[in-house]
Amino acid sequence: MNRHIVIREIDRADPDIIDELAEAGTATVHEAMGRIGFVGPHIRPIQQGAKIAGSAVTVLGHPGDNIMLHAAIELCRPGDVLVVANTAPSTHGMFGDLLATSLLARGVRGLVIDAGVRDTADLRAMGFPVWSQYVSCQGTVKSTPGSVNVPIVMGGITIQPGDVVCADDDGVVIVEREQARTALDGSRSRLDAETAARSRLAAGELGLDFYGLRERLLDLGVEYIDRL
Amino acid sequence: MNRHIVIREIDRADPDIIDELAEAGTATVHEAMGRIGFVGPHIRPIQQGAKIAGSAVTVLGHPGDNIMLHAAIELCRPGDVLVVANTAPSTHGMFGDLLATSLLARGVRGLVIDAGVRDTADLRAMGFPVWSQYVSCQGTVKSTPGSVNVPIVMGGITIQPGDVVCADDDGVVIVEREQARTALDGSRSRLDAETAARSRLAAGELGLDFYGLRERLLDLGVEYIDRL
Amino acid sequence: MNRHIVIREIDRADPDIIDELAEAGTATVHEAMGRIGFVGPHIRPIQQGAKIAGSAVTVLGHPGDNIMLHAAIELCRPGDVLVVANTAPSTHGMFGDLLATSLLARGVRGLVIDAGVRDTADLRAMGFPVWSQYVSCQGTVKSTPGSVNVPIVMGGITIQPGDVVCADDDGVVIVEREQARTALDGSRSRLDAETAARSRLAAGELGLDFYGLRERLLDLGVEYIDRL
Amino acid sequence: MNRHIVIREIDRADPDIIDELAEAGTATVHEAMGRIGFVGPHIRPIQQGAKIAGSAVTVLGHPGDNIMLHAAIELCRPGDVLVVANTAPSTHGMFGDLLATSLLARGVRGLVIDAGVRDTADLRAMGFPVWSQYVSCQGTVKSTPGSVNVPIVMGGITIQPGDVVCADDDGVVIVEREQARTALDGSRSRLDAETAARSRLAAGELGLDFYGLRERLLDLGVEYIDRL
Amino acid sequence: MNRHIVIREIDRADPDIIDELAEAGTATVHEAMGRIGFVGPHIRPIQQGAKIAGSAVTVLGHPGDNIMLHAAIELCRPGDVLVVANTAPSTHGMFGDLLATSLLARGVRGLVIDAGVRDTADLRAMGFPVWSQYVSCQGTVKSTPGSVNVPIVMGGITIQPGDVVCADDDGVVIVEREQARTALDGSRSRLDAETAARSRLAAGELGLDFYGLRERLLDLGVEYIDRL
Amino acid sequence: MNRHIVIREIDRADPDIIDELAEAGTATVHEAMGRIGFVGPHIRPIQQGAKIAGSAVTVLGHPGDNIMLHAAIELCRPGDVLVVANTAPSTHGMFGDLLATSLLARGVRGLVIDAGVRDTADLRAMGFPVWSQYVSCQGTVKSTPGSVNVPIVMGGITIQPGDVVCADDDGVVIVEREQARTALDGSRSRLDAETAARSRLAAGELGLDFYGLRERLLDLGVEYIDRL
């Protein structure tokens, strides 16, 4: 049955791996994992240029109620990312500059939330990065219980507390905690390959040729015609 | 029955109160009023950093037709905000840089519209702030009548002509004209309380403690568990 | 029947006309054509301030598959704009910095796509402008055939290869290739008229008067009332 | 400021007028009022063929919380329609067969709600008609206060308690209480005119001719061409 | 440039072919054409069980204005289907029982519209089938010109006047007029193949085997595992 | 890393419990579990009156590709429900009457899918119940691998193979396999309580009284006012 619980301690991935995943960026990490983990295009940054990774402290709340965000703060450690999902869609501004002040004081690296946030001008000025579904000044009540550090679902992805959250201008990608090193290894390989490809492509070589796609197009039955 | 009317004169709130509400910002004003007045997250700024308040001159138009915006201009006074709703959803770009030129000439502070706007690069360059549902270069006809300075509805909120429109990066909040002073008093109190809270939170104190939420969580049946 | 084809050669409009259409901007061009050609407000720029025009190289792809973008690259020439539609809605990030590197190497001016793009921070840094429906780091497969340089549909508009694509902060407008000169003539007239109107409006004259809208409002049965 | 109140007594329109408005149907009543009052296409019937009108008992609730529906029941009288709006979007199933049992016991004619309902098979079997935005089995809490018999907004329309709610397969139309007789008079005229028109149209006469639209098309600049 | 025109005469496909395409149904015809022509899932029937095909008489209208539907009626012949698109999204109820009375009098088989319709209970009772994006009792004006029998776009598909419109419970599919016979031949083949497959599948044979998909799964790298 | 796998054997809940959960219905089961498990209002039945439960055989597919549905069929047993999610949103009609023929031959009770289905008239005639996000005749390719009987996410809920899927007119609810008995016990209690409440409510007693909500409203600060 459904209980409302707060789990105090969670396992986290190796901080060095997390930092290097941040640097790799979401598109690379997502590809390196075999194209999984993207939470979807509806979760957007409120700022431009932020690029972070951290350990997920998860919150499951009720639409229009942010009491569980308050409960989550003291469980956050430096290097964490707060990740908030709700039991049903919510447009409310569940998070603003005061909660961000608390999180910054604890070394938290950012917020990912499938509802709204407010005080966005302040959040940008404070340098606290946020990825959210909405921007909304509509505040919340503090009346309905939820949970902290339980598995949550966001946009097609299950997120366990302690999973690595990567976020940048392209959105948010989740890496399972146990897969962090694998994701990093894959990301390094991919970055190397991309660097090599980039210089060839810049020189005018065609990916169609060096990826071997010309044959595949023929296999797929694509016909070339000079002119209609 | 439904008539199409233009009301020439409306009552406005005290300009000093309006200016201080602008400064307080939408999140604070919205909370100070008891969490009402937000028009919804679908009305978004086309610029970053604008923060205004003004008296609503209201327009009720027909989708794809902007003749009533033209009618509204001469009724605007310095310090007003033009607020445009339509009788049905519309994605059209009903407003652009020429209308903005007229409004700037009359001292109007901004536009809020539940349809689209265009010439957005020019509008940003001119410093005329706009909150809209869409950006669209699709122009309109001038064939179907509507009304000016009648009550309109935007995103769950009824707006009377003369109501105070507050708008910033978090969206748009409406304060009933008669409630402007009350809203300001509440906003001041809230800003004071937030300033006090902010320094305590920045020092690492927990809102969970000084807002008394720890007990409430227990009352709500939330259980704490050390580790799963 | 539906075949998958790649057309190598297409006709393009006069480059000087294209460049001047870019300068005119989407709102002006759209009006000059009689208010047609806007692909809709769901196709948005990932950057601010870009203002381009070019000849459409069109791609019709399958959701979640970008093999046909690779096929299209070698058909692009300096001054082209790649325009990508899918046979069904897709949120995938079908395009990123490597494809942009190839397109830049060929002198392509930008991308318009009714799906997602990724590496958006890089794309902005590279100065390669993009208009897309989504931002998404979710990558694609290369398994399903499509076509290049066939007519495609985007948001209510049919686009032929070689049509002129105009794109700026207000969105994307398509001008039929054969109509490019007409569109330019109309745009010039409109720009002249707007310049004249702008200075009169800035001086406080009312469009209501010099557009003759006052009589039209009366004809439409709009009543003026001093005060409710 | 925002208080949570329950108003016990409201004024209602003449029951005979209400019943005849039900019979006229939403499309006719809406036209008769000058094309106003439609709450929008997102509020849909869960059944087919119901056609009702009644006096609005209004509820303003919190997303995911149905305590105020319980509060509203004892204020309902025979011939009323319960109309529920929320302070923010909600997909929850806020209403089911038990609340319907209570409402049927009090002679209430139906429910209009901008959230979800559940037990829809039972509601259809009971013959209790419902118009809602969603169908959802997701239940609610009873923790956050709201109001009963205050003005609410639904989809672009302000609804006062006691207004006449007309609902059928085409959706929901609101008639201001004081306008009920006018709406009825207009509806009768329109029904008469439609009956006359219908037989002429059925006989093959063209509305283009007897509505005088042929001239209007010419005035609007529409050209007739035999064949392309 | 954009002119508003009404084309009186259009070419139509062979009526016998059209009737047989109706019988084949949209899913079969769509597959037979190589999976093209579906206008999208947003165009839905207001009734259940209708299954028609006919020649498209096309209308391009303005949001909230149905004057061009009136213009189109006299151009319709027995066996036609009226297909209505708008220059921008519209939720209005642009069509109701009076227009249906006219169309029935002329032998028109149905309506496809990317806006709303009303009088839906009457339309069902009259047996006039409709596929629309919305149901809405909100009526329209008759003020803005459009065109009849010009190419229109609906949901990703370009429709030429005279194209064959197939519509049933699965939605609406367009067959180019010149492709009608090819579509029919393909549909017949497909129906034969499906009949054969259906009896084998009903007997428990696996499509995985007789479509040869088992090998393809292995080629695609899918691994079989007995149990996790 | 992401592999594409097909798991042949899964554990299922007790069939008698499953059957009784079907009878209880989604609203009751969802409440009995503590209001969890609803996949969301976007998954809708294509028929009216079906009420089923079964063991989930899960499919994770690629948008526009149904090869993994074919792979899943031979793993289905009598009493199962096929549950299909995609790695990104898809509107395609991934399922039709031939696949349903196979599933019926294997005793499968229904389909739940977050994409589209087609042949809906046939599916209703066959008595094979379906819950889907879209109806679409647009067919798919068979080119991209996925997985069968892996955990999937649908609308905020994680679904494990073997979980109990309950579906009726109110939507789809998932019960974890290990919680099936608990869910049933809770459902029985709730059904008993509802039966008792229903007769009291039908007799005119107020839930406000016998649920003790009157006091709660006062505690929440709701004020009663006789008349405005």
Structure characterization notes:
The structure is a homohexamer of 228-residue chains. Chain A has 8 helices and 12 strands. Chain A is an alpha/beta fold and 228 residues long. In chain A, the strands form 2 sheets. In chain A, strands 2, 3, 4, 5, 6, 7, 10 and 11 form an 8-stranded mixed beta sheet that branches. A two-stranded antiparallel sheet of chain A has the order 8-9. Chain A starts with a strand and ends with a strand. Chain A has helices at residues 15-24, 26-32, 67-73, 97-105, 120-126, 180-202, 207-210, 213-219; strands spanning 5-7, 44-45, 52-61, 80-86, 110-117, 130-135, 147-148, 152-154, 157-159, 164-168, 171-175, 223-225. Strand 12 (223-225) of chain E pairs parallel with strand 1 of chain F, so a sheet runs across the interface.
Give a summary of the structure in a few sentences.
The structure is a homohexamer of 228-residue chains. The first copy, chain A, is α/β, with parallel strands linked by helices.
What percentage of the residues of chain A does DSSP assign to strands (E)? 25-35%
| N- and C-termini, Cα separation of chain A | 65 Å
| Alpha-beta classification of chain A | alpha/beta
Low-confidence stretches of chain A: none
The most extensive contact between chains is: D-E, 41 and 42 residues
Descriptive key words:
alpha/beta; homohexamer; 25% strand; 8 helices; eight-stranded mixed β-sheet; 32% helix; 12 strands; two-stranded antiparallel sheet; 228 residues
Secondary structure topology:
The structure is a homohexamer of 228-residue chains.
Chain A: E1 5-7, H1 15-24, H2 26-32, E2 44-45, E3 52-61, H3 67-73, E4 80-86, H4 97-105, E5 110-117, H5 120-126, E6 130-135, E7 147-148, E8 152-154, E9 157-159, E10 164-168, E11 171-175, H6 180-202, H7 207-210, H8 213-219, E12 223-225
Parallel strand pairs in A: 3-4, 4-5, 5-6
Antiparallel strand pairs in A: 2-6, 3-7, 3-10, 8-9, 10-11
Helix pairs in contact in A: 1-6, 2-6
